[in-house]
């Protein structure tokens, strides 16, 4: 067993200077002591890696099993396969219990077994009272490794997935999010959109085959947090997972990405009283050292809520929006920067103009000392919230390993933030934010403002929304 | 298992105390300290020392239910405005700010008056707008926008926010536990002597919020129409955010009056959950909130919703896919019948093993979703029992709604087995334990029950009532309230 983190005590006390002599500046505070829980890690003989923290606050157990897979592994003709695999995996019963009995057995105990998928993993999770673990554990394992995929339940799940597609254009804010993602990632797997054709083409055999391919112990991770001692857990896991055999070479996922930086301006016409704006382009990965100064630049632009320029200007000063924010999102495979704003239709030109103006300003002019200190101190002093629960700490460790980030990434995060200078912020914004490459998508009654919009920003191309079938 | 047998043996028609609940409550109360200051401010502290964080809530017993025509939307608008600071926080020059604000208010009064005319003069309005823009630009130079945010943020505070619903307005911030005094200082500044500055741009922000949550959202639109139809007289009918036409001309003086009526320590409850010690926290709260003056009384509505005399049906037409809501008037949630209907909702629609899901989603395969919930509307007054769902194409709202009715009728006719009921009760008990896993949940439970139902003990009383209910009682209560003449339906139909 490897003890990954020693028990650390962080004393967070950053001095803050205020120019105004306000009452709170006279306060002094005791030191804050943060004890970071230790995540125990061990590998089972079949390759399954376990991450564990004991938590006896309540008689509850939480587990989650992750295997390589996720939507990135769906082929172009079967986009939606990952989601359907997950929903029918849980919904279709397992080798120990039929779907109907499983639903009833879990629900009467208030227990949950759930299956889901994200970009590069498929997950099966469990929450139950520790007193119920003995009888629920075999069901959790069987759902993950030996699901029955009852045909009737599979067909229902596929039809529900199609119904979901039918309803995906009901809200403009959802449409702009989904279509902007597509505009950025295009044909890369991150831009995959399920359609009636792809979901309809997925049959039960394909789902079963995919399950077999993805659910293997080599490369799998198991998270356990709750009211169980380590020695008991080891006995339980040996009993539960020892028959799960590795298949040799781990699954690999192609995440290589070569996104274009070409500027694009598009719109989707929708009859809605607000105009939804998204602006952005691809950006740097989380492993890039410039990620941290860029986080601070983003905080100043629109990531810092009411402390940010976009919120102050477009919402508070101009009263044009209720919701406006920016983000810098860095995965290990790809990253994006972007801005969202929901505004009244005749406020769209002014809002978009201000968004572009503020992106340029953060790039072209040095941010003020006050803004820089506010952003940096906030991120450092809010560090304690990254350890709000033991589950959060353990699942993050697991995430870091999955993404090939170092185990001490949280410490590096803190240290890297502390090192950022005001010059680094502008440097990173200048290097990675490219106004000439921004992609812009508007969703709403664009036709009513099209002339004013195009006079100011140039031609916008209409994108037609697929019709519900 | 032993515990379940015990429960079965001790069931009766009267509310009683169950061992399980007794122990749950004792464990809960071991961490809880409650005190009330001389000015009536109630303080509830729940200790949880695992992480050096405190979740703070300050709740006021004022929501849209306390509004009437003329001040609709005030509770929510005030929630926005109280983040603007006071005479100390939020200004660079109070005198200059006062001068400009006065000019803005005179102009705003004229603008609103013009806007209220049947045929407003567009030329004059354009001129006013131009003047207003200039004045607001001047004002922006002397005010500090969102003055509390940077102070909290730099000190590690997170999630500074607030919400308003029909019953309450609640102010939230999570802080590192060593910053409790900062919280007490800033929050007391927020409520004891606020300056409602930069009102008119904020009014526009709230108008945008309404466009986002209601006018631009099919779910928001149907909800508003549903509540307006289900309640004909009681104030739960009013949309929390207010009506667009009234928001557009809501005067600042109306807000000030509303603030003066409802914001007082004896109408407020503070809840702290986390790494906090009452011996340290209570003196701090006393220091900062102790001089806040109590008020004699708070205006409350005396309107009771008249008995519904027949089924109602509202339809809206939209480009969105179809879905619907049903509502039935029921007694308050802290009554035997209220608790029973909560249990009934869980029994017929709680999860995939429920009769409603099994019939409509798995067997008939006509619905994408179905659900039931008791307590919609609010907690302070009589709420609604709701059912709802969305049809799976090519099926219709009517088919799904008829099928829900059939499920109800079959339950009324055949009853609920003891076995089935006990399964739901067992789940109820587990869910009480899960609820304690989150500090946010604990804070909400404490605040809601104390403010709306009179005591936090209702968290546990509800479980006692639920565990004592028999299958016959449950069905009889449901049968009494879930009748056609008490039903309101709102459906969204897709425009062809």
Number of distinct helices of chain B: 19
Name of the level-1 CATH class of the largest domain in chain B: Alpha Beta
User: From N to C, what is the helix and strand string of chain B?
Assistant: HHEEEHHHHEEHHHHHEHEEHHEEHHHHHE
The CATH homology group name of the largest domain in chain A:
Metalloenzyme, LuxS/M16 peptidase-like
Radius of gyration of chain B: 25 Å
Named CATH topology of the largest domain in chain A: Cytochrome Bc1 Complex, Chain A, domain 1
Low-confidence stretches of chain A: 1-19
Structural class of chain A: alpha+beta
Shape of chain A: globular
Describe this structure in words.
The complex is a heterodimer of chains A (469) and B (496). Chain A is of the alpha+beta class and 469 residues long. Chain A has 3 domains: 2-19 and 27-35, no CATH class; 40-241, Metalloenzyme, LuxS/M16 peptidase-like (Cytochrome Bc1 Complex, Chain A, domain 1), CATH 3.30.830.10; 264-462, Metalloenzyme, LuxS/M16 peptidase-like (Cytochrome Bc1 Complex, Chain A, domain 1). Chain A has helices at residues 81-91, 99-108, 133-145, 151-166, 172-185, 196-200, 204-214, 230-241, 291-303, 309-317, 348-364, 369-381, 390-402, 409-419, 422-432, 450-457, and strands spanning 2-3, 9-11, 33-35, 40-43, 49-54, 60-68, 112-117, 121-129, 221-226, 264-269, 274-283, 321-330, 335-344, 439-444, 461-462. In chain A, the strands form 3 sheets. Chain A has a 7-stranded mixed beta sheet, with helices on both faces. In chain A, strands 12-13-11-14-10-15 form a 6-stranded mixed beta sheet, with helices on both faces. In chain A, strands 2-3 form a two-stranded antiparallel sheet. The model of chain A is unreliable at 1-19 (pLDDT under 50). Helices cover 50% and strands 16% of the residues of chain B. With 496 residues, chain B is an alpha+beta fold. At the A-B interface, helix 2, helix 4, helix 10, strand 12 and strand 13 of A face helix 6, helix 7, helix 8, helix 14 and helix 16 of B.
């Amino acid at each position: 067993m490897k003890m990954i983190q020693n028990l650390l005590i962080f004393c967070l006390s950053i001095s803050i200077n205020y120019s105004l002599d306000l009452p709170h500046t006279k306060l002094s505070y005791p030191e804050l002591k943060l004890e970071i829980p230790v995540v125990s890690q061990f590998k089972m003989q079949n390759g399954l890696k376990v991450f564990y923290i004991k938590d006896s606050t309540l008689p509850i157990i939480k587990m989650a099993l992750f295997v390589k897979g996720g939507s990135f592994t769906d082929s172009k003709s079967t986009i939606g396969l990952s989601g359907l695999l997950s929903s029918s995996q849980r919904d279709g019963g397992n080798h120990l219990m039929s779907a109907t009995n499983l639903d009833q057995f879990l629900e009467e105990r208030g227990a949950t077994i759930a299956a889901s998928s994200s970009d590069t993993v498929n997950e099966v999770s469990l929450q139950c009272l520790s007193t119920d673990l003995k009888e629920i554990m075999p069901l959790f394992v069987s759902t993950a490794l030996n699901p029955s995929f009852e045909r009737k339940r599979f067909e229902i799940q596929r039809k529900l997935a199609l119904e979901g597609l039918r309803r995906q254009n009901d809200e403009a804010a959802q449409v702009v999010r989904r279509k902007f993602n597509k505009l950025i990632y295009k044909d890369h797997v991150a831009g995959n959109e399920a359609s009636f054709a792809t979901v309809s083409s997925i049959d039960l055999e394909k789902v079963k085959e995919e399950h077999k391919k993805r659910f293997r112990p080599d490369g799998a991770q198991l998270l356990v947090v709750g009211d169980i001692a380590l020695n008991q857990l080891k006995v339980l896991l040996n009993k539960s997972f020892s028959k799960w055999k590795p298949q040799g070479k781990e699954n690999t996922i192609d995440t290589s990405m070569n996104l274009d930086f070409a500027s694009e301006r598009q719109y989707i016409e929708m009859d809605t009283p607000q105009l939804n704006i998204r602006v952005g382009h691809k950006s740097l990965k989380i492993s890039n050292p410039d990620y941290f100064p860029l986080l601070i630049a983003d905080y100043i632009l629109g990531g810092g809520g009411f402390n940010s320029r976009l919120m102050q200007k477009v919402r508070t000063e101009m009263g044009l929006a209720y919701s406006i924010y920016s983000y810098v999102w860095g995965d290990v495979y790809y990253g994006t920067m972007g801005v969202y704003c929901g505004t009244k239709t005749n406020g769209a030109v002014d809002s978009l103009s201000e968004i572009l103006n503020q992106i340029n300003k953060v790039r072209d002019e040095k941010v003020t000392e006050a803004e820089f200190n506010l952003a940096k101190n906030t991120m450092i002093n809010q560090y304690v919230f990254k350890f709000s629960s033991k589950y959060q700490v353990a699942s993050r460790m697991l995430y870091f390993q999955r993404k090939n980030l170092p185990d001490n990434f949280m410490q590096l995060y803190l240290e890297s933030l502390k090192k950022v200078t005001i010059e680094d912020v502008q440097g990173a914004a200048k290097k990675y934010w490219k106004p000439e490459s921004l992609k812009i998508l508007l969703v709403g009654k664009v036709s009513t403002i099209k002339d004013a919009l195009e006079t100011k920003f140039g031609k916008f191309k209409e994108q037609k929304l697929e019709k519900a079938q | 298992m032993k515990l379940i047998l015990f429960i079965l043996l001790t069931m009766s028609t009267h509310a009683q105390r169950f061992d399980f609940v007794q122990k749950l409550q004792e464990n809960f109360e071991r961490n809880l300290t409650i005190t009330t200051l001389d000015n009536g401010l109630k303080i509830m502290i729940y200790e949880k020392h695992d992480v050096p964080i405190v979740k703070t809530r300050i709740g006021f017993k004022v929501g849209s239910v306390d509004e009437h025509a003329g001040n609709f939307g005030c509770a929510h608008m005030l929630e926005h405005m109280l983040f603007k600071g006071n005479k100390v926080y939020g200004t660079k020059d109070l005198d200059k700010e006062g001068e400009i604000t006065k000019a803005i208010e005179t102009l705003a009064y004229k603008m609103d008056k013009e806007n209220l005319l049947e045929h407003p003069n567009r030329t004059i309005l354009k001129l006013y707008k131009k003047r207003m823009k200039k004045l607001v630009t001047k004002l922006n130079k002397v005010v500090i926008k969102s003055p509390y945010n940077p102070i909290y943020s730099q000190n590690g505070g997170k999630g500074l926010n607030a919400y308003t619903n029909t019953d309450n307005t609640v102010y939230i911030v999570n802080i590192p536990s060593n910053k409790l005094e900062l919280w007490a200082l800033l929050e007391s500044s927020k409520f004891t002597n606020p300056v409602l500055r930069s009102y008119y741009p904020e009014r526009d922000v709230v108008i945008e919020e309404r466009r986002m949550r209601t006018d631009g959202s099919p779910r928001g639109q149907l909800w508003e129409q549903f509540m307006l139809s289900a309640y004909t007289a009681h104030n739960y009918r009013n949309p929390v955010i207010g009506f667009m036409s009234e928001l557009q001309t809501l005067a600042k003086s109306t807000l000030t009056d509303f603030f003066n009526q409802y914001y007082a320590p004896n109408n407020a409850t503070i809840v702290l959950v986390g790494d906090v010690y009452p011996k340290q926290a209570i003196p701090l709260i006393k220091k900062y909130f102790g001089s806040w003056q109590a008020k004699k009384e708070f205006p409350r509505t005396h309107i009771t919703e008249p008995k519904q005399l027949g089924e109602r049906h509202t339809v809206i037409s939209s480009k969105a896919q179809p879905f619907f809501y049903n509502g039935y008037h029921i007694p308050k949630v802290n009554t035997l019948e209220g608790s029973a209907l909560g249990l009934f909702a869980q029994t017929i629609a709680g999860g995939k093993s429920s009769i409603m899901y099994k019939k409509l989603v798995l067997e008939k395969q006509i619905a994408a979703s179905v659900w039931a919930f008791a307590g919609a509307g609010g907690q302070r007054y009589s709420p609604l029992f709701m059912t709802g769902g969305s049809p799976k194409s090519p099926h219709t709202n009517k088919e799904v709604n008829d099928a829900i009715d059939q499920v109800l009728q079959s339950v009324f006719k055949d009853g609920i087995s003891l076995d089935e009921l006990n399964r739901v009760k067992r789940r109820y008990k587990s869910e009480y334990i899960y609820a304690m896993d989150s500090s946010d949940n604990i804070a909400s439970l404490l605040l809601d029950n104390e403010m709306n139902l009179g005591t936090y003990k209702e968290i546990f009383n509800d479980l006692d009532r639920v565990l004592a209910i028999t299958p016959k009682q449950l069905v009889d209560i449901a049968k009494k309230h879930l009748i056609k003449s008490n039903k309101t339906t709102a459906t969204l139909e897709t425009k062809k």
